[in-house]
Fold this sequence. Notes:
Blueprint (H helix, E strand, L loop, with lengths): L2 H11 L11 E5 L2 E4 L4 E4 L2 H4 L8 H11 L12 H12 L5 E5 L2 H18 L7 E5 L8 H5 L4 H4 L9 E4 L4 H7 L4 E6 L2 E2 L5 E2 L2 H14 L2 E5 L23 E4 L10 E5 L1 H4 L15 H14 L2 H22 L5 E7 L2 E6 L3 H7 L5 E2 L1 E2 L4 E4 L7 H21 L1
Parallel strand pairs: 3-15, 5-6, 5-7, 7-10, 10-11
Antiparallel strand pairs: 1-2, 2-3, 4-12, 8-9, 11-12, 13-14, 14-17, 16-17
Helix pairs in contact: 3-11, 4-11, 12-14
Amino acid sequence: MNTQEIIELEKQYIMQTYKRADFVLERGEGVWLYDTVGRQYLDAGSGIAVNALGHHSEVISQAIKGAAEGLLHTANLYYTVPQTLLARDLCQSCFADKVFFSNSGTEANEGAFKFARKWAKAQGNPTKTGLVAFSGSFHGRTMGALALTSTLKYRTPFEPLIGDTTFGEFNNLDSAKAVINDHTCGVIVEPVQGEGGVTPSSPEFLAGLRELCHRHNALLIFDEIQCGMGRTGTLWAHQDYSVTPDIMTSAKSLGGGLPIGAILVTEAVAQTLQAGEHGSTFAGGPFVCTVAHAVLNHIQRPEFLAEVQAKGAYLAEKLQNLISRTSSIASIRGKGLMWGLVCHIPAAEVMAAAPQHGLLVLVAGEKIVRLLPPLIITEAEIDLLVERLFNTLLWLEGQR
């Protein structure tokens, strides 16, 4: 089948909830993707922060081969080695004492909200049910996660969503103080916002949220689904802030391309959940846990994270220099290998034009181009990324 035949077949049989580019991807190697007619693209989106170790990773391939020789699935009525070892290493990597596995980031956040409400009830306050999020937040698309996602275009078509949710202004501690109170059971925030514009939290904001949660006896939840797993240069983004949450959610890069999510919690939260109060058929299966364990162990190596920090600094310097070469970029912001370009032109135009110049990028708002290259990208490939981005912007400027 040729490219157009595949596209027409997709339109006939798949619900049109995604606006796809007009090519068909077939294979990948490292930071590179190739379509069915042989065109090459530098992937600066990593499958929306999933392919942290790149495409056709040897680490992941070897883990999959080993996992395929073992169990693919068992019910969560039984113990398995891969789930147990992954749980141990996740907890030992951060503040957490226990973990609950899910199949996605959205499910992880749904579970976190349930855990916060159950925890509050266990404190003897069944009416303490308020959940707080912030402007620019994105926590998922299911009914609960969507209720804590601030973007109206995602929320409005599906309202009414779950109730007792409130939004404060991101990075505004006075606004947070106005919405967090004794009725609040949980406060969720991304240490570095992804969909909301690649905006890092200020240290004062996260520290202030921690103090407010202590004051009002509420749980602080960090959504590290996009910004965690080495993306910002530390294994977990909050580790650069010296602020500890009560719950943290992870997904995306954790599975290296396979579906898995995790809810990491303190013992105080874990003790409030009893057998049968939360569950999932597929979550924490031995196959995906074997692969996720290999990904975690590779990314959390100090030398690997040091390389991410160095390459992040190199990319930041190159992007900063790009501002003087084009009239399309106003500023840049981000951390590690997670960057947003604040543009004078619509970001969607950049994303649509970039493949013509051999580059795949993302958007994070109307005028924010988002870059999330694989963590294994080299400095030479960063040079290519920036040059192809420049060529894209130069071409767009010529169209105006």
